Amino acid sequence: METKEALRIALQSLWANKLRTILTLLGVVIGVASVIAVVTLVNGANVYVATKVNGYGADVFTLSKQPAFTDSYADFLTYEKRKIIGMEDYHAVQNDCRHCLQVGAMQSSLGKIVFGPQSSSDTTIRGYTSLMAEMQNLNIVEGRDITQADEDHAAHVALIGSDIEENLLKGDDPLGKEIRVDGVPYTIIGLSEKQGKTLGQSQDNWVAVPLTAFDKTYGSSKTLTIYSKAGNAPGAMEAATDEARQLLRLRRHDLPGAPDSFTLETSDTLVGLWTQISGSFEAVAVAIAAISLIVGGIVIMNIMLVSVTERTREIGVRKALGARRSDIMLQFLLESGTMSLLGGAIGVIGGVGVAQLITLLLGFPASIALWSIFAGLAVAASVGLFFGVYPARKAAELDPIVALRSEF
User: Fold this and answer.
1) Span 372-395, mean pLDDT?
2) Cα–Cα separations (whole angstroms), residue 44 to 312, 346, 376
3) Which DSSP category does 193 fall into?
4) Domain coordinates of the chain in residue numbers?
5) CA nearest 194: which of 204, 209, 207?
6) What is the pLDDT of residues 208-223, one digit of tens each?
7) CA distance 310 to 316
8) Which residues does residue 105 pair with via DSSP β-bridges, in sequence order?
């Protein structure tokens, strides 16, 4: 029997039992859709994090009380017990780090912004040193950044994210407008470019004021995050990070051989840690989805066994007319393989659709990985063929005389 003829017969058999075929496909569809959706979302998150972190520049590193990502509660408790990074630490790095081309610092808190009758709660209030927006790669589309003069005089000036302009100022020209940040008046001097959402959380609901003005309102007991730019010269990053680390270790009296009492992170560190965390999540999700594929394969095998029983007389007639064992096996293997491959194709479309829907509703970044589509189809077809071997062999080994006597 030619492969083309066997495929035609397999499709006819599947079409003749449409409802049973659809129900059989569900396990494969759910499994493949789950894998594709998870891989698409994780890949999108990886691309987003890499873009954002690298946006700070490959030559920028940070010094903070605790890392940006913590993968265990025990580590989190350890980091919480550390001393805060204060203004003295910042000034030590700023004044004594010879390999650091530029040094800035930031503090943050949550607060309420009021403009006329409009207000915004749970807004991130940032305390910036001069040129911090530049170091965080924020593009000022209107106005200017916070300057050293603003910092020296604790000036009541503010940069705002696009959410403040859209929701409070309603699109009016923000420059020169006065807003109240937790009751304190500030004059808007700059507007940042819109950044969008991440994991459903807006990245534009913030106001930045000079760090000295921030400390007057909120106090200096909050920990700082120090940003430093090392330059692009060969070995500049290593020299700057080593020097900054030694300066902080001396100031914080870290004993020789003891771990740092602070966290130093580069863009590569953050991307690597996030990739590790997301990779673990992806592995668990794929393992769970694999269970759906196995269940789907078992369902396919069960239905194929039923099909062999129902078509016993048909098999006997084909053998009596000269069909070989290989022809019968090919017919049933193609039937199970076609069924699972079709389920895989539907699952791929459904998985991409689910990922895009999550992106639309929650703002979670998504990026389709082509390898995952081909892998999903290949795995689906393999499941069908693997679980179709036993029913196909059982059909091929039927005695034609016994098969012709069957009542089915």
Assistant:
1) 82
2) 50, 21, 18
3) P
4) 3-50+273-404, 104-223
5) 204
6) 999 999 999 998 778 9
7) 12
8) 226
